[in-house]
Structures are given as structure tokens and as C-alpha cells.
Amino acid sequence: MKLYVFSVVLALLVLSATAALPKKQVVITYPSNTPDSVLDEAKLAITSAGGVITHEYELIKGFAVKASVKILDKVHALSSDFRPTIEEDSIVTASS
To answer: How far is CA 43 from CA 16, 39, 56, 65, 95, in A?
Structure first.
């Protein structure tokens, strides 16, 4: 029972520490030949760390997230074969 209580308290401390980190709004894209399992692993890592997936793209392999820099670094290192491109999310306009 003590181990269970300790585990719960530890988990809450980790979650509160993660929630206190500043979050960035970014777009994460992968090469077109990236397996879906790599994207699923990245999304799971982000949501498990308290990040939020704000949009999933259909035409390209990628998604937009709001997450801490720490988890974004972890996502970048998850796959050595299929490295993601992580860019700050911004509004893009075309002018004529």
C-alpha cells in the first residue's frame, strides 16, 4: 500500500513539473516514407508528457502540437531512421 501511495505521489510530482514547463506551438513533419508507427510513437510521447496535438495533417506526414521543449527534443531523438522536422507554428500568407 505504501508503494502505491508513493507511486501516485511521484507521478503527480512529475506531471506537475512537466505542466510547469513553457510550451511551444510547433509543426512536426516526417519524410513521406515514414511508417505510421513512428508517428504514433511520437504522438504518444507528446500526449503522455502533457502535450496537446492540435491538428493532424492529411496530405503530409505530420501534426501540430503544443508541448514543452524537453519533449520536443525527445521526439526528435526517437527515430534515427526517420528524423522529424520541428518548426514553430506560424501563420503563412501569400501576397500577390
So the answer is: 20, 6, 10, 9, 34
